[in-house]
Amino acid sequence: MFPRSMAALHLRGRVIPGSPNLPFARMHKSSYPSHGHHKPLTWKSRLLWFSAGTISSVAVLAYKSSVISDQLRHQENLCRADTMRNDSTLPMKKTLNSFGKAQSPLKPRHNITDENMKEARKEFLTIVGCTGIDDNPGNLKSRSSTEWSRSPVETYASFIVFPQSTKQVSEIMKVCHKRRIPVTGFSGGTSLDGALASTRGGICIDFSRMNKILELHERDMDVIVQPAVGWEDLNEYLARVGLFFPPDPGPGAQIGGMIGTGCSGTNAYRYGTMKDWVISTTIVLADGTIVKTRNRPRKSTAGYDLTRLMVGSSGTLGLVTEAVLKVTAKPENVQVAVIAFPSTYKAVSTVIDAVQRGLPLAALELLDENTMSAVNQSGYTDKEYKVTPTLFVKFSGTKEAVKEQINVLGALAEKYGRESFESSGDPEEIDALWSARKTALWSFIAQKRDPDDKFLSSDVAVPISRLADIIEETKDMVQKVDLLGSTLGHVGDGNFHTGILYGEKDKAVAEKIIADLQRRAVEMEGTVTGEHGVGLALRDMLEEELGENAIDMMRKIKFALDPLCLLNCDKIVRVEAAEPSEEPA
Known about the structure:
The protein is an alpha+beta fold and 585 residues long.
């Protein structure tokens, strides 16, 4: 009776390790000792059965003890996880370890030792071949730090890997996941937010060999591309069939980076931003998993919008290897107007009136007097412009519609005392006029007083009724400290950029101006970044704009998809407490 009762007590509905896969409660009677009218057992049989039962009972008790210990450990881990979830991880000082000391519970533990990287390199060679890896020091630095987006650290990737397909990206990430190697993605390299900085070392995945336009569906008006396709090359290709892809950030930008930053450009006033033109993406997650976020229809409510989650994520959640993009009809009857004003306030007032009237302008841009001076001196254009705040406006549509738009805008500009109004519909002249706007950033950077001067910029956007106020306030701040600054931007949607050139001795002053400008934008219910993205540069300001709960939610999304923090670690949200020198100004 003892063995049977112990078995019933401890193993009802369970399986003994090493026994046939059948719960004790389901075993047939014949498997137990026979009693009643069956032949009685001999004393040897009873002794043998009792010994077997005792051994089984001991095994059962050991197994039960192991199960209970595992359950207790699991409950303890759940409690720790609950504590982590209930404590916001920004600011980091609110998160305490078991000793009551501030620390990040999510501190990445990467392995970039020479030995690990050497072995990883061997595995990468089997994936991309000997021509698919580069460790030239100059190339490593250029993938992490640029003239317009300097890395704050001297840490670079150990080498660059050049995949040619989604499958190769997946295999590369599987190696990195297994070996805990951090990864930074690279496409056009034109970003301004520090997203390229290789803060943890590891490897850089350069997508330059994934530069194909894979499929064009003319009747559906969409196109499938790889991440290193440039928007300019794409539009040249689409123009052959009368189609057009509107997002137009800086020259050289490529689709992968454009998705990562959620960029826009001069066409955003009429056509919207990058998020409005991405239908679907194919992405590779940190562990090498390949995910397609949508099919190709123009509308879908199929679950969470994973496509929009990727747009603006700076490569922190997944690596984009393909994208399905919407395209539209190429604009007709394009004309450009250049309108000079006596002051920024009068130029912006004209813009506000045009927006409130609902004029369907194709683009509406502002360059201040310092920027216009830089354009004249840069040599990028043959035309000489007035050194005064100037609007660059693009029109498109039917001939009648364009004519009406020009007349209405001309009357508004006259109302605010414009100094000149020049327009043209000639394609060559349009290119010449618009090139002044598209090269304005590079023209300004070329105005350095000293070759060692650095460039710092902002990307704020505010409700359009506050635009003139914040631009004037910013110009006053720059002028008071005698630094060279410029203001330009997509004023039709309230987004503008202030650039400052400064020497090392003025670094703190320049950073304070940009920080004060960003806080002023937030006070006006605006944003610290309209199109450049958060990257590394704005992660602390992001909390001031959205609050710590929103930042904590973003961090949890990050670690749900990338628990080892391999993908572009440190961007958008912090994963470790800031050093005193890193605190925002």
